Amino acid sequence: MPDQFLTELLQTAGTSGGEQAVQQVVRDFAQSFADEITTDLHGNVMAAVNNAGTPTIMLDAH
Q1: Burial code of 3-30, b = ≥16 C-beta within 10 A, e = fewer?
Q2: pTM for the whole structure
Q3: Is 33 inside any structural domain?
Q4: Cβ–Cβ < 8 Å for 29, 19
């Protein structure tokens, strides 16, 4: 499934200011494992797993 996600991500148009389709690809993928998925005003998609757990680890990509 991660290979399929990466392929779909790379094939989805996401020019500056028009990243909504890429955001949806990420949200769709994260639904299979995330407890909570949010998108902020800037379009950043955040997926939380065991949000109350410790330690807190953040993975970030741009």
Answers
A1: eeeeeeeeeeeeeeeebeebeebbeebb
A2: 0.82
A3: yes
A4: no
